[in-house]
């Protein structure tokens, strides 16, 4: 994403931020350090065996119950929640219950989505339904969702009620997004707009909530919270656009996924729908090939050679799907950053929001 | 339940209430009339196809999408929620969002439990996972749970925050109860206390919430809400004890279930655990038979003759399991009614709480 790209007639200014990695790592570390003990204490409230199943999901123990190092992900959401408390002039600690509640909802959705999608691996480990069975994946997901509300509402403040309302609304969008994702799988054609809406629901809504929930708990008014939500929402879409590019062209060593991962899953991700919408020779060829693919049985499709996926990827790129998606990531990033200017916050806090956005968008290929 | 029964040395006064059926029917009808339109409007908010799946679950449409008569159950919970608003001196309408939220949570748990338990029928119709697939059962369950919080929190009042907190805590108990139910299936022995705790979580907690949520929305203090919860909790346990008797000895025509329904499912319900705990010849014979049953494969067990189940039922009865459970229903009923005396409410409202309890406990065999 380092060159100016002509896409559909508009010139997108390159946003190649010089990421302050040390600063971002400190910010992520702070989020993890403050939120994890509270998250662990929340999970400890679960009745057995749900506490153990949840601890496995979070990577705190292995399948045999032995303590594990625990790869809890990048922890961008907790970092955002703490920062958003500071945007409202409060201490970062004020955002902790919000950070924990958002993480609980995020993990509730992972547990259920992995089961619905039949995904057997997450973060290089077997998923919960694979290890502990479908019933536990449903049950523990439900319990984490309920815990999220519990953690916030036991604060007993008006702000906590407002925060819970916003988190609930984000959760509904998350569920809408998963419903769309499932229904799109069975459709031959998905528009770019539908794909963006689905990704906004699945990824944008909860990042939006993370970026504003600390501010809400810190007493920010609705306008401030809405604006911070806008930052988080578009940051989520930028993240997802980058993810969609990596899902096809990402290096397996960095992504931890197979080569052509999203193509293997026949995912109608942004590069694919943009390529199909572009028109022209490559787009039409791609459409024909994907229509034929859709009718192939699962195992025949899984046996495709590297070359067959490479052909599809090349057509997507030729039709402009890759460039469009990279440009879309920059557009969404720019919209996210613009929102920050509408909130009156300390310059240092604004800089950290920007650095986090840079980090999210500039990821290793 | 019309005779005095000697149980474990204590004399339980018979509670054979002369149920004011007309009054109860009017009360249930009022709950249904006020809550159903709001419930339908809430479900209409769901994105397709979740709205259709939910409408099927509630019985508003059939599997082909055609309008259906809709057997939404007895609607005891909405009736309780409205009555509890009146207990706090508010209009019954004040309880409506609470009634709807409780119904949403109840149906969230039905959707997920049916899938986890592999139950193919509910209210004489195929369950959602059977008709629309497991993913929709998970997804729509999640959506109903989220909607419950949304309906309450959008009221934007302090009372709504308190009501949501109580509902969330009841939902956590519901989930705990389901976790216990699942884990007890794999255990050879379950104590009477464990069974009561599980039933209190699965049935008592949400009835407790229904019986208090209207009062909370009407501005009642925590002590009043706690006391009304106690009424609902013990009413739930009374209901469940009656249900456990009907689950073995109920008339299939009235219950809509198979003969010896709970025995066919090898359920460790109250009559069974009480019989096993009683000691003596019949209890020991029963223990031996059930231990052997537990090791039989599903299909061999399903092929049992009526006589084989009748033998087991007779041993449970001989060991005192049936009488103990009927007596337990009366004890729980009495505890529920006692709680009502601790709340200062209009006599007419109290009478209606009592009539609803009578109705719940005195059901057709």
Automatic annotation (TrEMBL), chains A, B:
The keyword Transferase applies. CDD domains: Trans_IPPS_HT. Keywords: Magnesium, Metal-binding, Transferase. GO terms for biological process: isoprenoid biosynthetic process. PROSITE patterns: POLYPRENYL_SYNTHASE_1. Belongs to the FPP/GGPP synthase family. This is Polyprenyl synthetase family protein. The lineage of its organism: Bacteria, Bacillati, Actinomycetota, Actinomycetes, Kitasatosporales.
